[in-house]
Request: fold
Amino acid sequence: MAPRGVARRRASVKRAVRALALILLALFLVAFARTATHGGANARDGDASATVSVVVRSSRRAAPDARADERRATETPTIANVDATRDEIVAADDAGVAAGMDDHRPSSPLKPPAPTWARVRADSRRRRAVREAMREVFGAYLKYARGHDELAPMSETGRDDFGGVGATLVDALDTLHIMGLSREFNEALSSLKGTDGEKFRDLIHGVSDRDVSVFETNIRIIGGLLSTYDLTGDADVLELAESMASRLSAAFDTASGVPRSFVNVKTGRAFGLPWTNGNSILADFGSMHLEWATLSARTGNALYEEHTNHVFDTISDNAHASGAPRGLFPHMFHPDTGRFAGGVVSFGALGDSFYEYLIKCWRSLGGLRRAERWREMFDDAIAGMKSHMLHEWKRGENMEVYAYVSPIGGAPKMEHLACFTPGMLVLGANEAPTVELADEYLEMAKNIARTCVEMYTSQPTGLSPDHASFPSGGNVTLVDAKNIQRPETVESLFYLYRKTGDDVYRDQAWTIFQAMKRAYRTPSGGWQGVRDVSVDPPKGDDKMQSFFLAETLKYLYLTFCEDSVMHLDEWVFNTEAHPFKMTRDVTTLGARSSSH
Reply:
């Protein structure tokens, strides 16, 4: 046995060692916490070890029973991250910084955050070609159709399918700004504010005695104005957006609070389409919350968000009685009875953008009430789609799957409209509840996108039909042969490229753009759709859709940009491709009292 003095000295040494170990452990944990929270700042200070090859965000995989508002509270980024200018982001990229990192809580403190978006460089040549196309088509619009809704390129005149309010001017504003076409942007904005925009302002201020589609006016007019405000800070534009929303608000005056499809901006009389027997359409009333919650956030007026949040509550609370498989909904809803009234269950026309907005609202609205319910409903919808609507068409040379999405109970066919689905799945894969679900969503997205691309490459013109069928193991069969310049396939290629960085998606987008240029272009400089994609050379339809400028050309341009341009952790695109800054932390959201 050692002498008592020696034992005491040994005990003192052990205590000192333990104390030193605890101090070192505490210092390590503090350093780790600072690194996890401020890694981006370290990189900006020149820490070479912080350089990474992909943009990363911490996972949102919180415990299933975590409260939605607690989750959102831990995920609010710093003001500096939200308000970073494009030049600052590009400069950070040049330094190798992972721009756009959020202060999210990772699923495990010992596991690095999973990569979300690929780091990609610009393809300047292709980007410039799309930019010049936009300059050309918008110039033709100004020359021949200024103040009208759309251009008839062959007739060299204007068309007024939306009441002659200059729909193309509003739809094109943010595309012009994003592409850096400053002269054209300033001219378009001046036209709206000047004499050319008199009809537009009369509509917005309720002077015109005119019936308008609540859905189309929301996604095009309010969406276009809100995005222009977010890009420029022009207060006049925000005032116009709020005035337009106040005119549409009368449509919500129903027993259920679900809006009717049309409203007169002067009298406030609201009504449904005759063929719906008074019912409202899911894709219409279910695709408004992104715009109206954003409008509440920008103006501080909670009324708009309250209207559309109540619509979501009504849909959610009636899910069990919809008559459709779990997660899915028929397209008819009666605003007076407050019940679903049957109809088609589809990811194409009449249903599409409702499902799109479930994930977009969940990702982009920081104060979203019942946030986890939005995510749950999205995941349920995709599970329902997979079980009841997703079909394998064929296998490729390397056994890759070609899939399509058709309405429940329908023939083996798919509308081009449904080709937005891969892009929606990419957003769902980002921050999915589990790694396995994220992988599944991405694989489904790739499988459907293959079919959407083949709808183009299988035709002599290189353009997709509006509707096609897919006999097992056979070729694309035309159901509706026209092509009206739709954006959905290039939209999905944009999301897939931003997610994977795989150049196959850029190449496919470029091939589609070249086919469009060959088939659409007219001597006036305007671009038109075609009547039959199986006939080459095609006959044109003498119409340049406003969404061709708002969506198709915008998504093509962004596909060839570096990832920092309209980064998908900072911007969200509405269903007309109008981008809004993500609303991270807004006290006006969720202001409506509720028992939920």
Remarks:
- The first helix runs from residue 4 to 44.
- The radius of gyration is 26 Å.
- DSSP finds 20 helices and 17 strands in the chain.
